[in-house]
Amino acid sequence: MSIRKSTQKQQDDIVARQYNGWARIYDLFWRRYVNQTIPVLKRAACVRPDERILDLASGTGAFEHRVAAEISDVELVGIDLAPSMVERARAKLDGASNVRFEQADAHDLPFDESSFDAVVCANSFHYFSHPQQVLAEVRRVLRSDGRLVLLDWCRDYWTCKGMDAVLQRVDPAYDTCYTVDELTTLLERAGLRTQYMFRYRFDLVWGMMVATAIP
Known about the structure:
alpha/beta; Rossmann fold; 8 helices
């Protein structure tokens, strides 16, 4: 791991404080939501043996748990801003030698350039204080033939549009969710070309989008 002196803007630390509180009950409270989203991310990521994968805002390690159960010869690195989430993830994947979790900010990744085959991010992009900076960091650490796979809420759905309006007023940790067109523009500005994008919804409330982008 390469440690660089940070000159970047940082994530608002209220996110870490909030998710430190969630860590103990997160897997139980959000079980159905996780089961309806992480498998979709996993299929879209199409992880292959011998790849090195970075998971942004990895939470309690739901993505790593599913991938490591199927592919042993892959290196999985999860980062999260909340120490308690990192602790829960480490406990969940205890004994998996090909998985590690670190406390780090997605706005300032402590990794060398061109060091990952893929970067994944699920259910977290709407929290990032400076999304364009996060995507620039993703572009920096991706190899030239690498890929970003991002799953998040989609404001094209009226339910998510309503949640977005409410959460911006009542949740200080929340930033914003995006439409498909807005996300595509953010990716392009970071030097990432969208390969494909699709939307889906479940339980009437949740409207999601999944994007795969390459340098």
